[in-house]
Each structure stands twice: as structure tokens, then as C-alpha cells.
Write a structure and sequence with these properties.
The complex is a heterodimer of chains A (370) and B (399). By secondary structure, chain A is mainly α. Chain A has helices at 2-5, 10-50, 58-79, 92-118, 123-145, 163-166, 172-179, 183-201, 203-213, 215-220, 225-251, 263-273, 278-300, 305-313, 316-331, 353-359, 364-369. Chain A is globular, with a radius of gyration of 23 Å. The termini of chain A are far apart. Chain B is mainly alpha-helical. Chain B is built from 15 helices and two strands. Chain B has helices spanning 8-14, 30-64, 71-84, 87-112, 120-137, 143-172, 176-196, 228-245, 247-257, 259-264, 269-296, 307-317, 322-346, 352-365, 367-374, and strands at 219-221, 225-226. In chain B, strands 1-2 form a two-stranded antiparallel sheet. Classes of the chains: A mainly alpha (370), B mainly alpha (399). At the A-B interface, helix 4, helix 5, helix 12 and helix 15 of A face helix 2, helix 7, helix 12 and helix 14 of B.
């Protein structure tokens, strides 16, 4: 190997690839763990944006859910103490916390849906309101609640990957990293696959895409645009709820103010980078968190020689900025453009349908003839 | 100083072709128009305070251990007396409002051009960073030279950081909402890197720059009534003049109302988008600059601020009008100034301010609730007037 690594320039590339192959089995669980809330947040955004509603409030929805999950679970554990713990660390308080988090995120989504679909307010403003509100209410309640130092209700535990899979030579680590997760992490895997199939293979998916691309046309073939948008936005809240709950009752077991720390916005970036598809978003989330994972690997065990010196010299903050930078690059179309659903951000109004169609030159003929 | 009353004719003559002019706007005397446009924001504030009061009562068992229906009065009284009850309180209100007004103008001028500048936060941070870098390195110079250089550096950095999304929007169609959100996080990482690395001060126990000495803005009055307050006071008429009395402002507003019409009239939407974002960045950068030189006088690596996000609320509440932004900035500045006393006297966490801001915005966005409650006529003053603001991410910009 040393001979190969000695080749100028290309040798360093080989060495870097070799290094990645060496460290990936070690950092893979961290990467998957960090990607889970981001991918879940992206699924929330997916449900919104595919049906034509912009959601920049994912961050706020996640933060609200994170607090509600932790607080409800903690309250339940205090009021009805029980020692019954099922598989995967599932206990009554945690389940109630999870349910409450999903309900809270759906409620916030309902507000977003009402503002952006019924009121036809600016959807960016609606998302901004959600983000400001979430920081305020969770910070406010957290400060009051934590005065009494409530006990934690614990957290979900990881699934033990069957040794038959985990010990497979070469790929065992991959199964281990992907499958050794708590219930929310496992739910994500199922959700991504199911949503991907539903989007491109089901009636719901076709209708959702139609509503997101051209609501006027969708309405003409009898799709209830308003109803479908409401349903999708509110169901998107389920994923934001899971994402928030993941942070406080699966990945960790406590809540800190503003703990989502921009994950909702990285989720938005992952959605865009993944071209508004569930699988793409999951891939983007993994790619983004891999950047962070590699940074840690370099810090704790840099490769030898010039490559190690170079990698150690890259500021840690650079790895943190990578997801955002590549999103800008992709959005600008430098390396293949990522196109949003065409009707995104545009409130739909049945009465205005004809007027808006008339304003569009390409649709002018169709309305003037009617 | 025109004494001539603003008749509907000469008002509409200088208005750019608006896509959605609310019926009745632009009619009547100036006083009537001001009243009409301020009714809705005022109603939203009143409703938000009521909702806040209910919320405080509901959470009072957590605060006092028992349900206390008088707690909102205690809290609001502390909020008012902390911000307006003393000379120092009033000065602190002005000092807190200064960055909000400047960054609010940065968001507001974007609205006028049909751009949603969520990047005020990043532009603010870049302005603060550049100012801190220059401010530390000019420690030996006289304040008369050091202050202008440091502020110019902050404005230039903010301007450059506003230029990027403007350029991307104009030439690639990348939506400014997404690019500015991403750039906000890039700015956080950049600040963390530069302040904890090259700029890290020698004497500090945590990552921050050295204290800024000669470039620090002089305190004119009270504890923190620094010179920067005057900058905000001057920026409001300056931007108002730019928007409503200059050719450039007319073009900016026209592009915001209808880019196609603007292009047809011989204007250059691309150049105007870039220029508007740059001016916005400059204003937000100035806000960051003043905050560093006037308030904290050093730059921490983990600079926690929400000025750029609060600025969105300020611009919306002020309906993107410079004068409106001034008053909205003063209101939110007063809330920030009084929040500390509210926490001490009433035990209400300062985050209550965020809740109130969000609820105010909610009622502005959902103006139909407010109109129903206060039986207001449907004219002017609502956020929905700003609906030209967000166009789709995917839509290509006018060539």
C-alpha cells in the first residue's frame, strides 16, 4: 500500500479513499444517528413542498416536538411511575411523550396549513412565525419547568442487529450501523421507502405531485387541491414530531433551549439537495452528516503523512459549513440544477384560478376560449 | 417641506404600478392614511398582549406555584417600567432598537423589491466580524480615523454578503430565501473559525477577540446611549428618501411590484435585484458593526444574537415602510430592554418576548381574525399586501 500511496497526487487520493474505508465502519453509527432527525425533518418538508406549500418552519416544529416529547414523558413518569419496559426500551411514558410530540407537531402544522392555504398568507412569513414562536414557547416553558428539576423519563434503546447480519464480512458494519437504532430511527427507514414508493407509484403520489406542479390543472381533473394540501401538510407534522422526539427521547434524554440548532434548516437543505424525493433527502442527510463524521475521525485519528497534516489543517468549522455551501451550489445550478415543484409558495384560490391563468401568457388561450 | 396636502392624484403619480393595491389606499388626507395603515398593526399588538396575558395566567402555576390572574399585570408593568420607566431604561430601549431598526430596514428594502431577505442575520454577523477584525487592528489610531474605518469595513462586508444571494438570484434563479438561510449558517461557521483562530484575543479565557479600544463608539448619554443610535435615526430618513424620492427607489419598487413591467419600461431587474440585496446587506452589516462597536466591544466566537431574525418581524410589523420599521424597532427594542426587569420582578422568562413577537406576526398574517374582531374595513395595513414578496423557488427571474 505504501507504494501506491507514494505516487504523487493520485497517491494522496488513494490514501484518502483508503482512510475513508478504514474509518467508515467506526463512524457510520454516528453518521446514521445524526442523519436521522435531519432526514425526518426533510420528510416533513417533502410532504409540504411536494404539494406546493413552502415550509421553512421545520426547525420550529422540531423544537416544539422535542420539548413536548421530553416534558410529557417526564410528567407521565412522575405521575404514574411504572417499571414496565418493553423491547427497544419502550415504556408507557416514552410512548405517551412520542404521541404528544407528534400531536404537537401536527397542531403546529395545522396552523401553518391554515395560514398558508386558507388565509393565503405568505408561506415564508408563516414559517418565520412558527420558528420565532417555537424558540419563545419552548425556552419559556423549559426555564419554568426546569426550576423543579423534573426527572428524565429515559430514552428508547437500540435494536440489537442479529449477529448473523452484523458479523457478515465486509458489509456487516453497514447492517449494524443502519439497523442498530431505536424505534424512531427504524421508523425513518420504513418511512423513506414507503414514501418513495407512494410518491411515484400511488394515486396519492400522483395527485400530490399534480397539486404541487400545477394546481389549476389538478382541480380541473377533479382533485381537491385545498383538501389534499391540508392533509399533506398536517401529515408532514408527523415526521417533524418524530424528528423532535428523536432528539429528546431516543438520541438523548433531556431538553435544552434551541437544541435543534439549525437541524430543521439542514433538513430543508437535504430536501433540496435530494431533489424533493424521500430517498434523495435521506441520501443528502447522510452525506451532510458524513462531512461532520469525517471531521471527527480526522480529529481523533488523522491519516499519516502529508494527507493527515492537510486534513488536520482544515478548520473544523469548514465541515460544518459544507452542507450549506453545496446546497447553494446545487441551487445555483452549477452542478446540475435542483428544481422545486413549480407551484411551490403559491397559495391556491379557486376564484382566482381563471384570473391567474389569464395572467400567464402560456395559459392565456385556454382561458380566453372558455 | 411641502405644505401641499398629499392628494390622491400626486400620490398615485409617484406610486409604481402595484400588483395588488388595496382599495382605498392612497386616498384621503395624510392623517387618515396614517390612521388606516396603523390600525391593523395596533390591533395586532393589542390582541397579542391579550393572548400573552392568557398564556401567562395559564403558566402562572409554574411561576408562582398557584394560579395568579394578576401576574400578567405585574409582568407587563415590569416590562413597561424596565423600558420606559427611567432615563436609563429609555436609553437602553433606544440602544436595543438601533440594530433592530437598521436590520429591519435591510429586510424591508428587500420586501420593496419583491425579495425576502432572510439573510439579515448572516449579513449582520459578517458586518460584526469585519468590524471586530478592523477594530482590533486599528487600536493605535485616533478614534476619528478608527471608527469610520471599522464601520466602513462592517458595511462593506455586509454588502458583499448581501451581494451573493442577489447575484445568485439574478443570474441563476436560486431563490434568495433558501440561499440566505444557507448563508446565515455559513456565516456562523465563519465567525466561529475566524474568532477562535486568527482573531482570538490573547487575554480572553474563552474564544473572543481582544477588546476594541479606539474604534469603540463614544457613549453620549447614560449607560449605553452610544453614537450608533444616531446612525439608526439617520438611516430611516435616508432610506425613506432613497425609496420614495429617488429614481433608484422608484425602480426598486417597480421591480418589486412587477419585474416584467419594469423590464418593459427599460429598467434592469437583474441589476436592481443585486443592488437591492447589496444595500440590504450594507444596512444589516452596519447594524452588526454598531452593535460590536457600541454595545459589546469585542466579538465572541459563539456570538448569540437574534437581531437578524427579529428584524424580519420588525419589517413585517412596520409594513416594510421606513417609518413603520422605526416604530416597530422601538417597540421590540423596548420589549428587549424591559424583559430583564420582567424576569426579575415577575419571574417571567425573557423568552416571553419571542412569544409576543410571534403572536403579533400571527395576527398580522391572519388579518382576517383581527378585522373580524375589531370590525375593521378591508383596506391597507396588512401583511397580505406584501404577497408579491415570495415567488416560487423554481421560478426563473425576469431576464
Amino acid at each position: 500500500m505504501d507504494v501506491v500511496y507514494g505516487i504523487p497526487i493520485i497517491g494522496v487520493v488513494f490514501q484518502f479513499i483508503g482512510y475513508l474505508i478504514d474509518v467508515f465502519p467506526i463512524i457510520a453509527p454516528t453518521i446514521v444517528g445524526a442523519a436521522t432527525p435531519i432526514a425526518l425533518g426533510a420528510l416533513c418538508g417533502f410532504m409540504n413542498e411536494r404539494s406546493g406549500v413552502v415550509n421553512i418552519g421545520i426547525e420550529g416544529m422540531m423544537l416544539t416536538a422535542a420539548f413536548v416529547a421530553w416534558w410529557t414523558a417526564s410528567l407521565t413518569a412522575q405521575l404514574v411511575p411504572s417499571d414496565v419496559i418493553g423491547p427497544l426500551g419502550i415504556s408507557a411514558p416514552l410512548l405517551i411523550g412520542l404521541t404528544a410530540a407528534i400531536a404537537a407537531a401536527m397542531l403546529v402544522s395545522l396552523v401553518h396549513a391554515w395560514l398558508s392555504i386558507t388565509v393565503r398568507a405568505d408561506q415564508i412569513i408563516s414559517g418565520t412565525i412558527i420558528n420565532i414562536f417555537a424558540v419563545g414557547i419552548t425556552g419559556y416553558l423549559n426555564l419554568l419547568v426546569s426550576r423543579s428539576a423534573p426527572p428524565s423519563a429515559g430514552q428508547f434503546s437500540r435494536w440489537e442487529t442479529p449477529t448473523a447480519l452484523a458479523d457478515l464480512p465486509g458489509v456487516g458494519w453497514l447492517f449494524d450501523a443502519v439497523l442498530s437504532q431505536g424505534p424512531i430511527g427504524l421508523a425513518l427507514l420504513v418511512a423513506v421507502i414507503v414514501m418513495q414508493i407512494l410518491l411515484f407509484r400511488s394515486r396519492w403520489g400522483l395527485r400530490t405531485r399534480a397539486v404541487g406542479e400545477h394546481p389549476e390543472a389538478a382541480e380541473t381533473v377533479g382533485i381537491n387541491v385545498i383538501g389534499l394540501r391540508y392533509r399533506n401538510v398536517i401529515l408532514g407534522g408527523v415526521f417533524a414530531g418524530l424528528a423532535g422526539a428523536y432528539l429528546t427521547i431516543e438520541f438523548g434524554n433531556s431538553f435544552q433551549g434551541e437544541m435543534t440548532n439549525g437541524r430543521g434548516f439542514i433538513a430543508l437543505a437535504a430536501l433540496i439537495f435530494g431533489r424533493w424525493t424521500p430517498l434523495g433527502a435521506l441520501g443528502a442527510a447522510l452525506l451532510f452528516t458524513a462531512s461532520e463524521g469525517i471531521q471527527r475521525a480526522v480529529r481523533f485519528g488523522p491519516p499519516e503523512g502529508a494527507l493527515g497534516e492537510f486534513l488536520s489543517g482544515v478548520p473544523t468549522q469548514f465541515y460544518g459549513a459544507v452542507p450549506y455551501l453545496i446546497t447553494i451550489i446545487v441551487l445555483a445550478g452549477v452542478v446540475g440544477r435542483s428544481m422545486a415543484p413549480a407551484a411551490i409558495g403559491r397559495p391556491y384560490s379557486r376564484e382566482k384560478r381563471e384570473r391567474r391563468a389569464a395572467a400567464k401568457p402560456d395559459a392565456a388561450e385556454s382561458t380566453s376560449s372558455s | 417641506m411641502t405644505k401641499e396636502p398629499a392628494t390622491s392624484e400626486n400620490v398615485s403619480a409617484e406610486q409604481p404600478p402595484q400588483a395588488s393595491v388595496p382599495p382605498g389606499a392612497g386616498n384621503g388626507s395624510l392623517a387618515q392614511r396614517v390612521l388606516r395603515t396603523t390600525l391593523l398593526p395596533a390591533a395586532a399588538i393589542v390582541l397579542a398582549l391579550l393572548v400573552g396575558a392568557i398564556f401567562i395566567i395559564a403558566s402562572s402555576p409554574l411561576v408562582d406555584g398557584e394560579l395568579n390572574p394578576m401576574l400578567p399585570l405585574t409582568a407587563y408593568w415590569a416590562l413597561v417600567s424596565g423600558s420606559l420607566g427611567s432615563l436609563n431604561g429609555i436609553i437602553n430601549t433606544l440602544a436595543q432598537a438601533t440594530p433592530l431598526v437598521l436590520a429591519g430596514l435591510a429586510v424591508g428594502i428587500g420586501f420593496k423589491a419583491g425579495l425576502f431577505n432572510i439573510g439579515a442575520q448572516g449579513q449582520f454577523l459578517m458586518g460584526a466580524l469585519a468590524t471586530a477584525a478592523v477594530g482590533v487592528s486599528v487600536a493605535g489610531l485616533s478614534p476619528f480615523i478608527a471608527i469610520p474605518i471599522a464601520i466602513a469595513a462592517g458595511m462593506a462586508a455586509g454588502m458583499a454578503y448581501g451581494f451573493i444571494p442577489g447575484f445568485l438570484k439574478a443570474y441563476t434563479g436560486a431563490h434568495e430565501v433558501v440561499t440566505t438561510i444557507m448563508l446565515n449558517f455559513v456565516a456562523i461557521q465563519l465567525v466561529a473559525y475566524i474568532v477562535s483562530g486568527p482573531l482570538r484575543g490573547a487575554e480572553a479565557s474563552f474564544a473572543k477577540t481582544d477588546t476594541i479600544v479606539s474604534a469603540a463608539l463614544p457613549i453620549l448619554i447614560g449607560r449605553n446611549g452610544h453614537l450608533g443610535v444616531l446612525f439608526a435615526a439617520l438611516a430611516v430618513p435616508a432610506i425613506a428618501w432613497l425609496l420614495f424620492r429617488s429614481t433608484l427607489g422608484f425602480e426598486i419598487r417597480t421591480v418589486g411590484a412587477n419585474p416584467d413591467a419594469a423590464r418593459y419600461a427599460g429598467m434592469h431587474p437583474r441589476a436592481l435585484i443585486i443592488l437591492t440585496m447589496s444595500i440590504a446587506g450594507l444596512l444589516a452589516g452596519l447594524a452588526g458593526s454598531i452593535e460590536i462597536l457600541g454595545q459589546i466591544r469585542h466579538m465572541p466566537a459563539a456570538y448569540a444574537t437574534s437581531v437578524g431574525f427579529d428584524a424580519i418581524a420588525v419589517a413585517l410589523l412596520g409594513r416594510a415602510h421606513p417609518v413603520g420599521i422605526l416604530f416597530a424597532g422601538l417597540l421590540f427594542g423596548a420589549m428587549r430592554a424591559g424583559a430583564g426587569l420582567m424576569q426579575i420582578q415577575a419571574g417571567i422568562p425573557v423568552q416571553m418576548i419571542n412569544v409576543l413577537q410571534a403572536v403579533i406576526l400571527f395576527f398580522l398574517a391572519a388579518d382576517l381574525i383581527v378585522r373580524a374582531i375589531f370590525r375593521l374595513r378591508a383596506d391597507g395595513g396588512s401583511v397580505s399586501e406584501l404577497q408579491t414578496v415570495t415567488r416560487s423557488y423554481g421560478e426563473q427571474v425576469a431576464k
